[in-house]
Amino acid sequence: MNGANEWPHAPVHRREPAGDSTDRDGTDxxxxxxxxxxxxxxxxxxxxxGGAGPERTFAALPVAGGRGFAQTWWGQAWLKALEDxxxxxxxxxxxxxxxxxxxxxxxxxxxxxxxxxxxxxDHTRHRSDVLLQQLSGxxxxxxxxxxxxxxxxxxxxxxxxxxxxxxEDAAAAGVELLPGIGDLEPECACEAWDHCAHSAxxxxxxxxxxxxxxxxxxxxxxxxxxxxxxxxxxxxxARAEAVAGPADAAGGDxxxxxxxxxxxARDALADEAQHVKxxxxxxxxxxxxxxxKARVALTGTPVENNLSExxxxxxxxxxxxxxxxxxxxxRHAQWIEGDAAGTPEAAAAADRLARxxxxxxxxxxxxxxxxxxxLPPKTETDRAVALTAEQAALYEAVxxxxxxxxxxxxxxxxxxxxxxxxxxxxxVCNHPAHYLxxxxxxxxxxxxxxxxxxxxxxxxxxxLDTILAEGAGVLVFTQYVGMARLLAAHLAAxxxxxxxxxxxxxxxxxxxxxxxxxxxxxxxxxxxxxxAGTGLxxxxxxxxxxxxxxxxxxxxxxxxxxAYRIGQTQPVQVHRMVTExxxxxxxxxxxxxxxxxxxxxxxxxxxxxxELTDAELADLVALRxxxx
Length: 628
Prior knowledge:
Helix content: 40-55%
Shape: globular
Structural class: alpha/beta
Strand order of the largest sheet: 10-15-14-11-13-12
Oligomer: single chain
């Protein structure tokens, strides 16, 4: 476009820190802007007026180009309400043009009202509002009960997401979460009586905001993120308290011994405290009912995926130190983990949090002076391998089909397809038989042929030949039980003594397998990463092989520590297999970033990958010419 047809872009405002805020002047928060005539356009009182309250301001979004306005389920539901309400289709069409051309300025969202200034082609500016009825107190009680009763909803909200099925569960409780026909009420300085181009443009822009953060809808319905999480925390604690001392049916004394009786004069120590990283889980709620005089949490992984996990542990050991979960995420986590990550502001937030928690953390590493001086050195090596021709052909076919399935999907369906794609690619990188679900020890799968189909299996055979010639023991970790079974059959065909431990192994058999390995009866121990990553002492191993990579560095480190622990007398070599030019290369980079997050604060997967755009996902999984 050029000349008179060029659209003037609305001013770009600096985005406020993520989370809720209040209006600086303590008034109703109405935005005052000047229209083209120079007059001040002020807002009338409406659903969103009535004193200071939570408010979020979003910077003007970039020009939409040829993309659709709603990519997710929530954005599409919002637009359906708009298009079912508006009487004039021509105004909607013009509103789409306004929004697509970047004519909508910064958008203010607060309970019951969204506001922005929209510019016409002639540079006239109109303050436009769209009102949505807030939920009543009774409705909020019902909705919060629905959310508090489902751990999946709580976990999703912590990740700034809302499962679409929440709408159905809320409706079953009598709460209509989404706007319906006639619920989006327009107010515009142009004085149109129905949705005009300006209010329509604002609604189309809000659909894009909902694509980014569906919690915007809950703010419109009356609750900001901080208030919401604090109330859910309170309800979760109340539920735990109610469950703590159930009385028998006859109304007599509570069954068993009261926690207050059992622990009032004692200290409480929670081992493997990472299991309470979800503060709304039943385990975390039960732990909070113990009225111990002192509390100590032991964990090797205080931060695995996000900083809310650190909050959950410290909120039990030192209640109040980090404030409510909502305030903690607003003040610390969203700066460190969010879009600002890597900026000076994020570094300052990480340093501020580190100084706050440092007096309450007693962090020790085996490498610290004086902690375990008798421990021998540990060497970690990334072992790069190439795909075989069969693997490369499978990899490219899976990428092509997977991206085709993902294109055009959104929400939970898209996330599921992304995880499916990543899992399939990791299985291809392991071995074609793993992806193709071939049974272990198939008749035509001789040892040499099986190894020759996978670069990883060939490297494993070479490593084992060297390790066994030294008379050493080795742990081989994989996250897939199916792959472990394939390896067990392959090693048996080669005559290599090995044993396999996974989540279905009985406790007595586990103990016997550990004893046999420690006694030297079996030199190769195949282990499921999640089932055997903690709680085992396997110091006979001088080598640890990670056949595939987990999404979290802390989980891998704990698995390695089955061998590298107090009592180890041999140098330990850690071999991490990475298939060159594949998704495994980029997973390695993700693990390095998570490790830096933990180190920055304590000095944290797969969920992050599901949020990539189609272009970013294609770049992540693209095969970069490395086949043999």
